[in-house]
Amino acid sequence: MPRRPENLFAQYHAHVYFDAETVAQARALCRLAGERFGIRVGRMHERPVGPHPHWSCQLAFDSTQFDGVIAWLHENRNGLDILVHGVTGDDLEDHTAHASWLGKESTLKLEMFSRRG
After folding, report:
1. pTM here?
2. Which partner for 82 in 21, 57, 68, 102 could form a disulfide, CB atoms 3.0-4.6 Å apart?
3. Residue 82: is its pLDDT beyond 70?
4. What would the pLDDT profile of 24-80 be if each residue is shown by its tens digit?
């Protein structure tokens, strides 16, 4: 069972995953989240990028917005899977120990991250 998001960090990213059949749904969800919460909405990547094994769009927000954003995404995701993680400056930790999910968990491509220190 995927770990559910908790408000533990100052900054967050939520990566909305989609495919060719759900791109319009994801585009609308991300646009509405940006409008409703005043959060940063990234590009709609219609190919896997970085550690993400699916097409995705990044939403960026902070701890003061967390509860509202997460509750709204959970209520409105309509089957889309969403990776939520803290942004601490340690990409590997952010995408593993600090990662949680709305929907199904996916296996990320972590080999791109080098261990800090």
Report:
1. 0.94
2. 102
3. yes
4. 999 999 999 999 999 999 999 999 999 999 999 999 999 999 999 999 999 999 999
| Token digits of residue 76 | 């409105």
What tokens does 13 get? 């990213």
* Interaxial angle between packed helices 63-76 and 23-37, expressed in degrees from 0 to 180 and rounded to the nearest 10: 140
DSSP 10: S
User: Rounded to whole angstroms, how far apart are CA atoms 111 and 24?
Assistant: 30
- Read off the DSSP letter of residue 93: H
Handedness of CA 8, 79, 112, 44 (dihedral sign): negative
Cβ atoms 45, 106 nearer than 8 A: no
